[in-house]
Structure to design on (230 residues):
């Protein structure tokens, strides 16, 4: 057995090792005179060079090459300090100012936001956070949501108990905790009962209400609210 292993090793060893050779194929060199091989050689080795050139191109040049999306970026560029030809399209440091071209407004003004240039040109492109519903806008905010949601919305407006935050400055889906005040008569130490809950809990389909009004409220809360004998 040992002899056979040695012989087998000798059978393959004499071939000069080349990184791009593989069993059953001719070794291919970019410098080969064959038209077939030189054709292959001219595209593959050039690809990284082209990618490098692309990384260095300006945002303006990149937009020119990217059809409608490029036009949209040019339209949304709103930076006061630089032009689209003063940043590279892959710049991952500069936070530029952009202005939504799809109609988002805040207090009647076109919505603007800051974003890295590379974030807008890379394959998973970041769009306007207002259009995506991530930030409050005139068309998408908690106050608007309440106004569009009948009696239940009015109840939320009534229960809003944040002294320093306006309902139009948060999104209906935010997980931020806000203070609410019971509108159904729960009191604690003679004052209307308040509690904290994420906005999302109040606007999602399984709407959470005042914990004091909940028949399943914990006993210590019921005691605090005077709903059962202390
Ligand atoms: Zn938008
Ligand atoms: Zn209550």
């Amino acid at each position: 057995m040992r002899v056979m292993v040695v012989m087998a090793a000798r059978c393959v060893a004499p071939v000069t090792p080349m990184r791009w050779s593989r069993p059953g194929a001719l070794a291919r060199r970019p410098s080969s005179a064959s038209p077939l091989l030189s054709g292959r050689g001219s595209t593959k080795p050039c690809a990284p060079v082209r990618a490098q050139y692309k990384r260095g191109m300006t945002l303006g040049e990149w937009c020119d090459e990217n059809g409608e999306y490029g036009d949209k970026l040019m339209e949304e560029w709103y930076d006061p300090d630089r032009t689209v030809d003063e940043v590279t399209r892959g710049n991952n440091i500069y936070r530029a100012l952009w202005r939504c071209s799809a109609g988002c407004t805040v207090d009647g003004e076109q919505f603007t936001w800051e974003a890295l240039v590379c974030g807008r040109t890379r394959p998973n492109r970041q769009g306007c956070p207002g259009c995506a519903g991530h930030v409050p806008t005139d068309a998408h905010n908690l106050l608007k949501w309440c106004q569009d949601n009948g009696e239940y919305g009015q109840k939320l407006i009534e229960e809003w108990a944040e002294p320093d935050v306006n309902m139009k400055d948060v999104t209906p889906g935010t997980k931020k905790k806000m203070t609410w005040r019971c509108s159904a008569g729960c009191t604690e130490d003679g004052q209307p009962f308040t509690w904290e809950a994420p906005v999302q809990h109040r606007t999602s389909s399984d709407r959470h209400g005042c914990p004091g009004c909940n028949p399943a409220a914990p006993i210590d809360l019921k005691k605090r609210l005077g709903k059962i004998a202390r």
Remarks:
- The first strand starts at residue 95 and ends at 99.
- Strands lie at 95-99, 105-106, 109-110, 112-116, 177-181, 187-188, 191-192, 194-198.
- Residues 100, 102, 104, 111, 128, 130-131 surround zinc ion (ligand 1) (CB under 6 Å).
